[in-house]
Design brief:
Rossmann fold, 7-stranded antiparallel beta sheet, 6-stranded mixed beta sheet
């Protein structure tokens, strides 16, 4: 039960008061290509040789990537994983003002968030548009896309659970003292109300203390677990002790379906994103879709070997034109401008980083509400297109876009995470 002191710590998610304009053609291109990226990253996750070679430098130079790789190998690599993969993915884009194209920032394969609250914000914006319309005025709801991110995420998780035999409960792995719990609880509520499936919440420390394997089945506090959905485990701070890594390995060694598997988690690494942009690599995985998918690629550069030397020269000549990205998720990790320059000048082995073109989106004036305070600021936006993906054996059972999220941040901010405190939840107004 939540006491008065604890209840006082909760606040609403930061939001925009009205949707932000976004070109319809760019939105539709991002939406149309996103399912192809879900299939692509699943394909990458199933290619041991490609993962091993692509991540070699990151494994050598980044302890977190190395620890994830250790879980992958100790759980049996490709042979040890379930013959199915369920994904709640999000492909993030920024509108590149010079080209007018939505250029891809990244593909998130683990712990995508705000499907529930993003859906609520879209609904709020549609409601406010109708409420504020003058008598007889027709509101153009076609310009405000219906957002089914919550139902799409819940439905694909339920489908994955059913595909594995409708066994036990779904476990949602969360962070201790979770700040974004209401976004998560909406998903659990939807899954129970729509599909009758119970969800249990657990931190990795709790899984380590109270989880076990029984003939390959993951059990937690006496309940069998048929599917594990990660809303934590994507950042080094989620593993303060070896116990959390033991829990991750326990989950991976179980016969529960994972969303995502550690292989799919590794496939979402920045180094994989950069490798796929190299000539011919994307085509080897997606020969029929590669041309369309490359339309949304930003310029990406390896920092290994001779190619890395040339990339470093490019970045040092124009530090404001690039972003230095480590193998991290969750916001607050990238290096820009002077910080980028200082890190490159420091030298050493940069195999744990990639270099990316800095995307230059148009700015807007946005009325925002954060912690009850209304403020109008100059902003930039990042579009996320959710994807629902289920493969069973070699058959792709579900692969569709599942709603969207616009994160809008102050134009003076380099980072864009809502939970990290940089942005507000928004929705697109297509023009």
């Amino acid at each position: 039960m939540i006491g008065g002191d604890e209840a006082g710590t909760f606040t609403h998610a930061p939001v925009s008061c009205a949707p932000t304009t976004f070109p319809r053609s760019a939105y539709e291109l991002a939406e149309a290509t996103s399912p192809a990226f879900a299939e692509l990253y699943d394909g990458v996750s199933r290619d041991d040789g490609f993962l091993r070679e692509t991540l070699r430098g990151a494994i050598k130079n980044d302890a977190f990537t190395a620890a994830l790789w250790d879980v992958y190998e100790r759980s049996g690599g490709q042979e040890g994983r379930q013959k199915a993969e369920v994904g709640v993915l999000r492909s993030d884009y920024m509108l590149d003002a010079p080209s007018g194209l939505p250029l891809q920032v990244e593909v998130n394969t683990v712990s995508t968030s705000f499907m529930a609250l993003g859906s609520k914000v879209s609904a709020m914006h549609r409601h406010l548009a109708a409420w504020s319309a003058k008598p007889g005025e027709v509101v153009d709801f076609d310009a405000m896309p219906q957002n089914d991110a919550l139902s799409s995420a819940g439905d694909v998780l339920a489908a994955g659970w059913k595909a594995m035999g409708s066994k036990g409960k779904i476990m949602m792995v969360v962070q201790p003292n979770e700040r974004n719990m209401f976004d998560q609880r909406h998903i659990s509520h939807y899954i129970f109300e729509t599909h009758g499936i119970h969800t249990v919440r657990a931190t990795l420390a709790e899984v380590n203390a109270e989880g076990a394997l029984r003939d390959g089945t993951l059990t937690f506090r006496g309940d069998d677990i048929g599917l594990v959905y990660f809303r934590a485990g994507y950042t080094p701070s989620d593993y303060p002790t070896s116990g959390e890594w033991s829990a991750r390995l326990l989950i991976e060694q179980s016969n529960a379906l994972k969303s995502p598997s550690v292989a799919m988690h590794l496939a979402g690494s920045k180094k994989v994103q950069q490798k796929l942009a190299e000539a011919g690599v994307l085509e080897s995985f997606m020969p029929e879709r590669a041309a369309d998918m490359r339309r949304v690629f930003a310029d990406l550069y390896s920092l290994d070997g001779d190619e890395g030397t040339e990339a470093i020269k490019l970045a040092l000549a124009n530090p404001a034109g690039y972003v230095l990205k480590p193998q991290r998720e969750g916001g607050g990790n990238n290096l820009y401008s002077d910080d980028l320059r200082k890190r490159l000048e420091l030298g050493g082995d940069l195999g744990a980083f990639i270099l990316m073109q800095r995307i230059l989106p148009p700015s807007h004036q946005t009325l925002t509400v954060r912690a009850g305070k209304v403020l109008e600021i100059e902003t930039l936006s990042e579009l996320g297109i959710y994807g629902s993906y289920l493969r069973v054996g070699d058959e792709i059972v579900i692969n569709k876009h599942g709603g969207s999220l616009l994160r809008t941040k102050a134009a003076t901010s380099d980072e864009g995470g809502v939970a990290a405190g940089y942005a507000v939840l928004d929705s697109p107004l297509l023009v």
